[in-house]
Design brief:
There is one protein chain. This protein is an alpha/beta fold and about 400 residues long. It has 14 helices and 16 strands. Helix 9 links the parallel strand 11 and strand 12. Bound molecules: N-(iminomethyl)-L-glutamic acid (NIG) and fe (iii) ion (FE).
């Protein structure tokens, strides 16, 4: 395997607390990294770097771990521009809009869905995302959910079965029968293509008992739970997530003190998705409260055509710092190591010997610029599995 030395790094976020300043982001200055094939082989001061087959000069700029976007919904067709326009004229967001995308997605060919996934992944990669999770949830029939997962699994290992996004319009009169489908025939068809099972636990979607039944059935089929919880209102989702040892409770916008305590004490990551609050003009999740209580926080895009049509982790970092009480260091950690924790991965989200060689070079002297210079395309080069890809 040829080795590559990336040197002249003004500031390097390693997320390895044994490096540099000893903070959680393990910040090294005047640093270098050696990539050996798909993995990181060496990290340290540039002056002590070993020789390698090729050298890349970072020209005194910042390098960070590739972003780990642990929550997106990329298998869809159509868009919801009209709904967005209506919201920006004062209408509020509701889960009902999902039906519009379900209709468009069912009508789309495999090729159209595949092309969409490829397009949004390329967009995300250019903005520094090297690991991403994506979900079904816009098919809501056995055939269409399995198709979505098959398409997603050609592009990532982090695939989530979300047959329980809303009750299918075909079952509007009999939600219990839809839960039976989601936990029976649909689950059987979908489980082979997925690693995770998710449910939208919310008024207008699935209640706590239904969510418990769905996640428990998924667990019995070898899927691991994650959950859309406490997005639009207070509810049982977060506590259920912790009880079932879900990897992640996602949104976490409406939390009681008991919810915060549960997240702080359990192993469930609180994944915050500020693109959704931005695009629905909703109240921000309180990252500061979660961090101060000791919860692990991840930051992701929720990229979907309804509530958060952004693939940009840097944009989410800027929002989290400006409006959710996070420091730039906390936000960068949450968008990298935090996302990895939400996917129960330790091979990504950090730059350390043996970790995957997933890195982003910023056209800036430090990672702080991601929040300091919002909206500026600072990601200038991306390595994934050791290969320069964007
Ligand atoms: O995570 N909350 C549920 N699902 C998505 C929105 C889906 C949509 O509106 O199409 C979310 O925000
Ligand atoms: Fe979502």
């Amino acid at each position: 395997m040829p080795t590559t030395l990336i040197t002249n790094i003004a500031s390097l976020v390693t997320n390895d607390p044994s490096q540099g300043d000893g903070s959680p982001i393990g910040l090294l200055t005047d640093a270098a990294v050696v990539l050996d094939g798909e993995n990181v082989a060496w990290v340290g001061p540039a002056a002590k770097a070993p020789a390698a087959d090729t050298t890349y000069d970072a020209e005194n700029r910042a390098v960070i771990p590739g972003f780990v976007d642990s929550h997106s919904h990329l298998v869809f067709a159509g868009d919801r521009t009209q709904e967005f326009n209506a919201r920006m004229s004062g209408r509020s967001y509701s889960a009902g809009g999902i039906r519009t995308t379900v209709a468009a997605t069912r009508a789309a060919s495999d090729e159209e869905l595949e092309a969409n996934v490829v397009r949004y992944l390329a967009e995300a990669l250019r903005q520094g995302t090297t690991t991403f999770e994506t979900k079904s949830g816009y098919g809501l029939t056995t055939e269409h959910e399995a198709r979505a997962l098959r398409i997603a699994s050609a592009h990532t290992d982090e695939v989530t079965y979300l047959g329980a996004h809303i009750v299918s319009p075909d079952y509007a009169e009999d939600p219990a029968a839809y839960v039976e489908l989601v936990t029976g025939e649909m689950l059987d068809a979908c489980a082979p293509h997925a690693r995770w099972i998710d449910v939208f636990c919310e008024k207008g979607a699935f209640d706590g008992d239904q969510a418990r039944a769905i996640l428990t059935a998924g667990k019995a089929k070898g899927l691991h739970p994650r959950i859309h919880a406490n997005q639009l209102s207070y509810g049982p989702g977060v506590q259920l997530a912790v009880e079932l040892d879900a990897a992640s409770a996602d949104h976490c916008t409406h939390l009681t003190d008991a919810d915060v305590d549960a997240l702080a004490q359990g192993d469930t990551v609180a994944t915050l998705l500020p693109g959704a609050e931005f695009s629905t003009r909703a109240e921000w999740p309180d990252a500061r409260r979660l961090l101060d209580a000791g919860a692990t926080v991840a930051l992701s895009t929720d990229c979907n055509p309804g509530s958060s049509f952004t693939s940009s982790v840097p944009f989410c970092i800027a929002l989290a710092v400006r409006d959710m009480g996070m420091t730039p260091d906390e936000a960068i950690w949450s968008a990298t190591a935090g996302g990895a924790a939400a996917l129960r991965r330790d091979d990504v989200g950090r730059i350390a010997v043996g970790a995957r060689a997933d890195l982003a070079l910023l056209d800036a002297p430090s990672h702080v610029h991601l929040a300091y210079r919002p909206g500026v395309p600072l990601v200038t080069r991306v390595w994934r599995r050791g290969e320069p890809v964007a």
